[in-house]
């Protein structure tokens, strides 16, 4: 009987790429995104007046500093950690080191769980969508049109959007998991072949001893009567 893990196992992704190639591309893509975020955060630290965002008193009644130095430092540390994790996954897929792929796979699981909790919160607390829209700044495009939409239609659109994101993330998780299985299985096969070869070499006698021809006994001496 085929297990569910083996049933969904495949060495190809996106209909044409190998799972190793797909994992490498995915790791590089995540590294580029986090590098851009890191550059923006570092620019905000160097010039906080330009990048700092203030909500006006007409919107919330108070002047709230959304991006302070502490939040920027935390976001910078998270971006550096993400670049490290994505780099490890890229290196592990390229050099076929399965252990290096595990941190990136754990991050994908954590990100998928967070998005799932967001979808559950929208279903359990439907008013959170309207509360979130009210917190948006007045300059947000089409804010009034979105808020005037029927609440059920708005919730359905949000759930459909989150569902598409979750499906895509689940597919990427499967690709990375298949890459991990492929790399770990390939390494196990190489170790078994190596051990078997060594055992065979140890157990087999030397070639010279195996093919050596035993010496013939001298013929008996001829004795005259």
From TrEMBL:
<keyword id="KW-1003">Cell membrane</keyword>
<dbReference type="GO" id="GO:0042995">
    <property type="term" value="C:cell projection"/>
</dbReference>
<keyword id="KW-0458">Lysosome</keyword>
<dbReference type="GO" id="GO:0005886">
    <property type="term" value="C:plasma membrane"/>
</dbReference>
<keyword id="KW-0472">Membrane</keyword>
<dbReference type="InterPro" id="IPR004687">
    <property type="entry name" value="LAPTM4/5"/>
</dbReference>
<keyword id="KW-0832">Ubl conjugation</keyword>
<keyword id="KW-0812">Transmembrane</keyword>
<dbReference type="GO" id="GO:0032585">
    <property type="term" value="C:multivesicular body membrane"/>
</dbReference>
<feature type="transmembrane region" description="Helical">
    <location>
        <begin position="70"/>
        <end position="94"/>
    </location>
</feature>
<protein>
    <recommendedName>
        <fullName>Lysosomal-associated transmembrane protein 4B</fullName>
    </recommendedName>
</protein>
<comment type="subunit">
    <text>Homooligomer; upon reaching the lysosomes. Interacts with MCOLN1. Interacts with NEDD4; may play a role in the lysosomal sorting of LAPTM4B; enhances HGS association with NEDD4; mediates inhibition of EGFR degradation. Interacts with PIP5K1C; promotes SNX5 association with LAPTM4B; kinase activity of PIP5K1C is required; interaction is regulated by phosphatidylinositol 4,5-bisphosphate generated by PIP5K1C. Interacts with HGS; promotes HGS ubiquitination. Interacts with SNX5.</text>
</comment>
<comment type="similarity">
    <text>Belongs to the LAPTM4/LAPTM5 transporter family.</text>
</comment>
<keyword id="KW-0967">Endosome</keyword>
<keyword id="KW-0966">Cell projection</keyword>
<dbReference type="GO" id="GO:0005765">
    <property type="term" value="C:lysosomal membrane"/>
</dbReference>
<feature type="transmembrane region" description="Helical">
    <location>
        <begin position="100"/>
        <end position="125"/>
    </location>
</feature>
<feature type="transmembrane region" description="Helical">
    <location>
        <begin position="152"/>
        <end position="172"/>
    </location>
</feature>
<dbReference type="InterPro" id="IPR051115">
    <property type="entry name" value="LAPTM_transporter"/>
</dbReference>
<comment type="function">
    <text>Required for optimal lysosomal function. Blocks EGF-stimulated EGFR intraluminal sorting and degradation. Conversely by binding with the phosphatidylinositol 4,5-bisphosphate, regulates its PIP5K1C interaction, inhibits HGS ubiquitination and relieves LAPTM4B inhibition of EGFR degradation. Recruits SLC3A2 and SLC7A5 (the Leu transporter) to the lysosome, promoting entry of leucine and other essential amino acid (EAA) into the lysosome, stimulating activation of proton-transporting vacuolar (V)-ATPase protein pump (V-ATPase) and hence mTORC1 activation.</text>
</comment>
<keyword id="KW-1133">Transmembrane helix</keyword>
<dbReference type="Pfam" id="PF03821">
    <property type="entry name" value="Mtp"/>
</dbReference>
<feature type="transmembrane region" description="Helical">
    <location>
        <begin position="28"/>
        <end position="49"/>
    </location>
</feature>
<keyword id="KW-0813">Transport</keyword>
């Amino acid at each position: 009987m085929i297990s569910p893990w083996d049933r969904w196992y495949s060495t190809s992704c996106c209909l044409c790429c190998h799972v190793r190639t797909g994992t490498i591309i995915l790791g590089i893509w995540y590294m580029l995104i986090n590098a851009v975020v890191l550059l923006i955060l570092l620019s905000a630290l160097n010039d906080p007046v330009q990048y700092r965002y203030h909500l006006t008193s007409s919107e919330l009644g108070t002047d709230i500093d959304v991006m302070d130095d502490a939040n920027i430092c935390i976001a910078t540390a998270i971006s550096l950690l993400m670049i490290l994790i994505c780099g490890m996954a890229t290196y592990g897929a390229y050099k076929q080191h399965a252990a290096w792929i595990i941190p990136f796979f754990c991050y994908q699981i954590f990100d998928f769980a967070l998005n799932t909790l967001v979808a559950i919160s929208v279903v359990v607390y439907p008013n959170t969508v309207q509360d979130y829209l009210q917190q948006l700044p007045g300059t947000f495009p089409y804010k009034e049109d979105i808020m005037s939409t029927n609440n059920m239609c708005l919730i359905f659109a949000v759930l459909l959007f989150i569902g598409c994101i979750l499906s895509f993330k689940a597919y990427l998780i499967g690709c990375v998991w298949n890459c991990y299985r492929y790399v770990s299985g390939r390494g196990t096969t190489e170790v078994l072949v190596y051990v078997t070869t060594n055992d065979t070499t140890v157990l087999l006698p030397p070639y010279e001893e195996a093919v050596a021809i035993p010496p013939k006994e001298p013929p008996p001496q001829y004795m005259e009567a």
